[in-house]
## 1
Amino acid sequence: MSTSETPSVETKIDGRAGERSRELMGAARQVIPGGVNSPVRAFGPVGGDPPFVRKAQGAHIVTEDGVALIDYVGTWGPAILGHANPEVIDAVQKAVRDGLSFGAASAGEVDFAELVCSMVPSLQGGMVRMVNSGTEATMSALRLARGYTGRDKIIKMDGGYHGHADFLLVAAGSGAATLGLPGTAGVPADVVKQTLLAPHNDLDAVRAVVEQHPDDIAAIIIEPVCGNMGCVPPQPGYLEGLRELTAERGIVLIFDEVMTGFRLAKGGAQELFGVTPDLTCLGKIVGGGLPCAAYGGKREIMEQLAPLGPVYQAGTLSGNPIAVAAGMATLKILERDAPYAQLDAMTERLARGIVEAADAAGLPFTSNRVGSMFTGFFRSGEVRNYEDAKGSDLEQFTTWHGAMLERGIYLAPSQFEAGFLSVAHTEAIVDQTVAAAKEAMAVVAG
Ligand code: PMP
């Protein structure tokens, strides 16, 4: 089967949890908190039980209830080539035969580091360190920035999500926002004292925070295109302004490209917008669907890491050979095929179709999109930051989500998430989605 065909076993369309998924969720709740290993999977924000996934192929996931759904979650970003890309699967299968983990230096890690450094502008001529999750990447990059500058404070944006390290769970987006837990229990007040906040896309606000603590700020960390308050692009001049400000003040500028890296361009958002940070965090696509992430950047900063320098960071499974094989195969395909124009065109087609559906239904609706990341907000007017995103009608979103799922379309169960396309999303698949969207918007409009 080609990666873009609908898996043929299934003819049902309604993707809402059927008997089998509900049964599994009941069992899961007994042994896994909330039944899930990551909170937003539980469908809390939109209600009902989630469909359980049996397998994934191309642009589709197949549920335990026997329904093939068009998938716009893409395992939350990694699946840019579509699910189960044959070249990636082949690379993984080959790697598996040589052993699952070495915990020692291996040739594949060198090739992989060279490839990653060559693709991402801020890593060119610099260095990269592999870790296992986006959370580890951001946490480690910030420790490194603090070690390098000898300063303690960091700035993050309101509604930005950088994983679940204690000191980053302040005004956090994504699942934390969705569940109304932008902070969290279990984080001592002392730990978050050094985390300063600014509204996203507001350069003057960041400047003001810097002015208050002129010599104490180690780093500014930002999603250059936000995905975790829904998709929110940078305002013109914003990233450039942050670059200028941080350079002036000796602050390490960190782009969290866990979502945008290798997705918006080969070199991520920094390539697309032409702004080069000091350090970059990578995740999701870099591991090709396996647990692998990375952080890297300027040589003089990266050389502060142990065993070269005094900043400690380690990992038993870091640079794991299977994850490296999957990541390597994925990045090589992206480098070879550069599918970015195609992804952009398909996502534009989809976003336009959804806007037309909302317009036809007379619903206030704002569509944000950068390349193959998109979010439709159920509100009128621009969405430039988390405050704007929070002005969306969440009841309408819930109805929309359910109506789309009923029509075979699997979207993230939260207004505060981005949707993703893959190269397996053909025009026919996008048009099928738009047809469903027309009906779903009519349902939302009542
Ligand atoms: N940073 C960003 C921008 C993210 O979107 C995410 C996860 N969605 C993370 C960090 C954390 O990555 P992980 O879930 O792999 O720990």
## 2
Amino acid sequence: MTSTFETDKGNGGETHQHVPEKGPHETADHLTTNQGIRVTDNQNSLRSGERGPTLLEDFVLREKIFHFDHERIPERIVHARGSAAHGYFELYESLADITKADLFQRAGEKTPLFTRFSTVAGGAGSVDTPRDVRGFAVKFYTKEGNWDLVGNNIPVFFIQDAIKFPDLVHAVKMEADRAFPQAGSAHDTFWDWASLMPETTHMLMWAMSDRTIPRSLRMMEGFGIHTFRLVNAKGKSTFVKFHWKPKLGLQSTVWDEALKLQAADNDYHRRDLWESIHSGNYPEWELGLQLFDQEFADAQPYDVLDATKLIPEEVIPIRLVGRMVLDRNPDNFFAETEQAAYCPANIVPGVDFSNDPLLQGRLFSYLDTQKSRLGTANFHQLPINAPKCPVMNFQRDGQMQMNVPKGRANYEPNSLSDHNEEGGPRECPVTGFSTFEGRSEHGEQGDKLRIRAELFADHYSQARLFWHSQQPAEQAHIASSFVFELSKVVLAQVPPRMVANLRNVDENLAKRVADGLGIELPKKNAAARTPVDMAPSPALSIHANMKGTLVGRTIAVLIADGTDAAALTTLGKSIEKAGAKCALIALKIGGATLSDGKKIKADGQLQGSPSQLFDAVAVLTTKTATEKLAKEGAAVQWVMDAFGHLKAIGFTADSKALLDKAGVTPDEGVMDIATGFVEAASKRYWAREPSIRNLA
Ligand code: HDD
């Protein structure tokens, strides 16, 4: 298609569009080269004679191959695998009392945004469901410029100081010499490094929890992590931590399910996000603020500038101030999702940084990395990155300059405007961004020192808080994840060193992990600062915050020839009434002929649609069909896995034989379809787990 580039009106205050002039015979679907020359034949290169050599002269071929050869750009050094969507932020109430940021002034006002979710360790082509932290980056296109809130789905981070980031990333990504494992932390170098860095302990607890194996990008929280500032028109600053709360509630998979999802669908999360938006089920999150002042900060047993610490919601409640709705899929993955360049340094008047040393380092890294990734200092002109407000300055030139600035003035101050010529833009002393003038009385200024503040040395109190805020099933998952990951570590010195650290978190946890590894409980690692006990925070538990809802979920129904048409209609209606999608699975994608003689198409073929793709399953087959399915490995596995993944299973008297074959023993999540299956489907059955799997 025609390569038409348009610069956004926001760039340089200039509008400069290349619109191909229409030739006399031109229609919109003319195939052309990048120079606009119409192409007669896109199937055959130019050759000398019918069977002769291809000619160098063939500019159509050369240009096409040249462009193809250069299609790839360096992937992100971290967060390479991502999926994104357009949407908007809608403000509930004016926040003018705490911030002058324009997007927070008028209740009901919508600000466009682009949100990208990502895994951290894997490459761009890696799977969606490894055990990994998820990035949660939001670019708000405000009227006063772009504000990027570049967060994760975990409210704390592995390290306290940006100087450690390259070590963290080198340790966690595939190992330098062998280039494996891809997209996972279960290997020597990560645990070698982490076990030597006690400050990672709190985040490790989160990473080993089910937070890192989310069911859907739509069902996870987001966090700005650092303490930021909001500044109002009078110059008053309030500290803030940003939260995103998913409307669909929190939900994760279980580990065995996450592993099997990697085989069932590499793109499980990407597809889920894309399909839900495509079908009009727009995912939503509420933006929450934790607001506090210096007096509160000074009174805490942790430092609010330390990114390995959180503020429990029970201590500072979250004020929900607006919602983000993602309502449009990107038109082009590369142009938008891949070229999106987020940067925590992109803030607007009314928002400001804190002295968090991790944040301060990030302020450098992102702008810098975009140059090596996108190849030019002009990447801000790409449509996905361009602000939706005027951009006017004296920055000029550089590779891929898309704007055509006019006039002589490319410096400032100048007096050209005084002489009736274009003098260019001027400073904005009142409306411009002015850095909050923080006072230095809290040790925020002074001699140049390579040290950390005293409270940063407490590496265990909040790890312990997290552990004690989890429900028993969640604790078992955390302990088991440590066992799984450390069992993959070959370096003998590493697992005991990690367990020695865990003894500072909780003796019971450490003992369970040591038992699970089959090693002696090592001597406790000396803590740099004695941990304190904090009141448990139920807000940190996923299980305590799951919504008993089927909205946004999918229930699969296994059908076969002869399936009762009326029963299927009743079941399908009640699934849809509960807000879920009903997926029909059959031996053949062509579907099945129901009891009423009508053929119904399937949504998935059984062998390609294992039950880990669904939130609950039901088997609605005749006795004869069930007997046949009981000899089909994929059908038996389908039910067995649903049971193992703690899902509800619906059956009928005729289909129960399949469950028997799969070794499914009825419990409160396994029931006749007619006796409350759809209601039961909104839950996972944690109590079942100890009967089917040994957890640490
Ligand atoms: Fe980072 C990307 C989140 C610490 C350096 N980071 C990146 C992305 C997310 C985060 C979500 C992907 C954005 C996108 O979708 O394009 N990073 C975080 C969070 C951190 C954090 C929540 C701690 C609270 N990051 C961090 C540090 C450094 C970086 C301390 C370096 C000093 N991060 C980068 C980077 C990346 C990046 C190398 C890679 C690609 C990119 O920026 O655009 O600059």
